[in-house]
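User: What would this chain look like folded?
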Amino acid sequence: MPAALPKKSKKNQQPKAPTSSLIKRIIRTYVACYKTELFIAILFMAFAAAMTAALAALMQPVLDDVLYGKREDMIIPVALGICLTFCGRGISTYIHTILMNKVGQYIVSDIQTDLFKKFMHLDMAFFHANPSGQLVSRVVNDVNIMRYAVTDSLTGLGKSLFTLIFLIGLMFLTDWKLTLAAFIVFPLLSGFVIYVGKRLRKISKSIQSELGDLSDLLSQTFQGIRLIMAYRAEDFEIVKVTRAIHRVRDLNIKSVRISTLLTPVNEILVGFIFAGIIIYGGYEVIAGRTTAGHLASFIAAFTMAYEPMKKLAKLNNTLQTGLGAADRVFLMIDTKPQIMDTNDAKIITSKTPDVKFDNIEFSYAGEDLRALQNISFTAQNGQVTALVGPSGGGKSTIMNLIPRFYDPTNGAVKVDGVDIREISQASLRENIALVSQDITIFNDSVMANIRYGNLNASDDAVFEAAKSAAAHDFILGFDDGYETIVGENGTKLSGGQKQRISIARAILRDAPILLLDEATSALDNESEKLVQDALKLLEKGRTTIVIAHRLTTVQEADQILVLDQGCIAERGTHDALLTQNGVYAQMYKTGMKG
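Assistant: Here's the prediction, encoded as structure tokens.
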């Protein structure tokens, strides 16, 4: 087992948006879209709050008229009034709760959709800088925290606030002096609530960050389970994940400890206030300056007002926790892609475009070493250009520049004579078919995976593409044929089967620019022969750029570029390069010996 484990790095250094600006943004961008439903819900909230105050007010006739006054004619009217008040409050509470939760769910789904849309329009540099587990955590964990904050805020804020207003109004009508005395400590309590809220928001951001790390760690572990088992690293991974789980646990405990501070403070303050009300009110009743009914009504109103006050305090905790998650979500939504279309981006119209690299230099973000330098060549239409050389030479980087996954540091990549920075990304990528060594297979049917190359293709076109890629026969061998679900990342397929489905996808794409990154590396000899024949047909009339480690697969290429340490060390045909007796010749001889 390894001696040391990676240490947790510090995060959450991004600036925190002001609370008011975050709330305004959520209201302006998302809440305002549902103003009709909100208006109806608020009306029912106000009615429910009024019914709560009415119940407190009815305590006065219950005591003064019915119990002490012994007025028989008031028994049924008072009882009926109480019954109708409860019914009205129950029905209105049901309606506004349903409406508010509906609005809250819609708002959160809108945020999740906007966040995912943003991810789909960001560039490769962003995804390389942000692990997939972190991004999943933003969409699921962070937005779920926002879900609770938005739903609870919309449902609880209006109801508690209206209830508090009506009850305080009733208390002022009953005894304004006593009301002022009862709420003299309210500013102190408000200050404490604000302090706790700020602490919770900070902790919330830390929790969401740790959950993102945990999600990413779990994702890496499950994807690498084969390697973990092979190297007996299960205990090492258990320790890593356990540490991440414990960090989340400790932060959640800290969050509960801070948020619960409001409970004893609330109870102590209210205890003193309640004792004061009893002392003052008792003397007033004994002196005959008020009645027991009025005092009971006041106490009932204060008791009922205490609950919405507690809810508003807890609601601030929930809101601040949600705003901590909102900080992280909006940080993603506000991220600007490094690669963007110009306002007058061009469309590729040529069916026979060339690809030209004009003195290209490129460095990955955060790296001083140049991945490419002084790269110039032209891949002609109807020809095959092969990229060969040792690992780390820059072959994959060249492939990444053509679909504009990255922009070069210097120089220009041109398609049909136009700098691709002046071409719309949609038009550029619609004219490219890519078969990568790192094959992506979705947890869907074989049919859907092939059709990904052209979402509008007919079933017959999919069948023909599969036949051309030598995939049709093994697909028919599955119990469900083309409707077979292949599992996450194609777990039900062999490496060769996945590669043939990927090639079928590219064939179905039928694009004028064909990029092949070790397209036959996982095939057996028989399948490779079939697929090579299919690729030869596919390459006709297209601009084809091929990465190959097995030089036998590119001997017939029209030009071969030998890349070494980011530079083109040699170029020419297979025969011409052999006669130079340089890097290519040595690679070829070594490969033949192998």
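The radius of gyration is 35 Å. If you want, I can go into more detail on any region.
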